Amino acid sequence: MAASKYKHILFDLDHTLWDYDRNAAETLTELYKEYNLSTNGNFSDKEFVATFFEINEQLWTSYNKGQISKHVIRTQRFNKIFDQLNLPLQYQPRDIDARYVHGCPEKTHTMAYAFEVLDYLVQHYSMHIITNGFNDVQSTKLSRSGLAPYFDHVITSESCGAKKPAARIFEYTLEKISADKSECVMIGDNLNTDIQGAINADIDQVYYNPTGKAHDHAVTMEISCLSDLKSLF
User: Fold this and answer.
1) Is 26 in the same domain as 70?
2) What total of structural domains would you count in the chain?
3) What is the pLDDT of residue 4?
4) pLDDT above 70: percentage of residues in the chain
């Protein structure tokens, strides 16, 4: 397939360019110490981080399917984490989710080769973000990490009223950037949202699969490292 037909590259943000796992773990470790959870709870900082990722993934899967709202994530996430870790209610800090939501987007770790690849691609393509993340948080991530200048448009599920994998968020993006679907390619790490969403909108995809997950999706292209994009485009 001739990559030259593309004019616009659509990127997912979390786990694709912005290193969510590293930034979240760093923030959570700081909060573990700040709230003295080693004394009040019978769990390590690593257990705290691992439980967060487990619960957070469950909640975001439900959110992406339209089963729960942003409010549920923001108000119930840490309650569920602390309950699973058997932390007594009187020791559960009430403002920890707000502190996490404020602190984590300030972190600046990006995926390997992100800037090298973006420096290359921006010379040849218009680039845009499509994310199911929330407006306030994603804006901070992009600005603080230095990723923002590379992108012409940032489309969030909140801004258009639809979430990946719905075709609507991609159609909305095409309207915003005045592009035909044949001119676009979507790059993301999530088969169920990024890749399936692009498939639903009849847009070519690049599945970013750094851990080599087995799957049966018929993707347009697949990479294991962002640096591979330089040979594709």
Assistant:
1) yes
2) 2
3) 66
4) 98
Q: Is 145 in the same domain as 183?
A: yes
> Are 34 and 97 contained in the same domain?
yes
222 shares a domain with 141: yes
Residues 179 and 219 in one domain: yes
- In angstroms, the CA 226 to CA 114 distance is 6
76 and 170 part of one domain: no
**Same domain (yes/no): 135, 29:** no
- Non-local (6+) Cβ contacts of 188 within 8 A are 11, 12, 16, 194, 195, 198, 205, 206, 207, 208
The domain in which residue 64 lies consists of 21-106
Q: Hey, is 39 helix, strand or coil?
A: helix
Q: Rounded to 5 degrees, what are φ and ψ at 70?
A: -55, -40
Share of the chain above pLDDT 90, in %: 96
Q: How many whole angstroms separate alpha carbon 62 and alpha carbon 65?
A: 5
The β-bridge partners of 130 are 155
- Enter the pTM of the model: 0.95
pLDDT 10s digits, 180-226: 999 999 999 999 999 999 999 999 999 999 999 999 999 999 999 99
Give per-residue pLDDT as tens, 118-173.
999 999 999 999 999 999 899 999 999 999 999 999 999 999 999 999 999 999 99
Considering 68, 83, 106, which residue would you say is the last residue of a domain?
106
Residues 6+ apart with CB under 8 A from 207: 188, 189, 191, 194, 195, 215, 217, 219, 221, 222, 223
